[in-house]
Design a protein that fits this description.
158 residues; alpha/beta; 2 helices
Length: 158
């Protein structure tokens, strides 16, 4: 009897470990939500999305309000179109702005929404007009190096 009780407890412990690992893998893969909440879609055009990926977080004031559903390329405007699924409980004014931000210095990128002051609210299928593209670290470094090289070329020795 004692041996079968121990085997039962070990089996339950192993199953609990597998469940915990599965939940952890889903959280790390940004798939923690199983689609139980209702959403509406918003889109926003960006000139550069950097390393933004589908399923990336959409945050406002540090709170996750949705996820990036799709990223496509607009052949007419030569811009990236980011489609976002926003939870229905979160409402944003028509003059909301969207930015691509980075969590930390080299962390994951996400879309940040900053609400405006308009009384009318965005609805499903609307497009956010005011956007700010991702800051690309390589561009910043090259601009800094170019400006330093230009500074160095203007000095004269006595």
């Amino acid at each position: 009897m004692e041996r079968s009780t121990i085997d039962l407890w070990v089996g339950l412990f192993v199953v609990a470990g597998f469940v915990a690992l599965t939940i952890l893998a889903l959280k790390v893969g940004n798939m923690g939500s199983f689609g139980g909440t209702e959403t509406y879609q918003l889109s926003a055009p960006f000139t550069n999305i950097g390393g933004l990926k589908p399923r990336a977080a959409v945050k406002s004031a540090g709170v996750v309000v949705g996820r990036v559903a799709d990223i496509s390329f607009d052949n007419d405007k030569f811009m990236a179109k980011v489609t976002m699924n926003i939870e229905k409980r979160f409402k944003f004014p028509k003059d909301t702005s969207a930015s691509i931000l980075t969590a930390g210095l080299l962390g994951e990128q996400y879309v940040g929404l900053e609400g405006g002051a308009d009384d009318a609210m965005l609805a499903g299928g609307d497009t956010i007009k005011m956007t700010q593209s991702a800051v690309v670290l390589e561009k910043l470094i090259s601009q800094f190096m170019y400006s330093k090289a230009a500074e160095g070329g203007n000095t004269t020795s006595k």
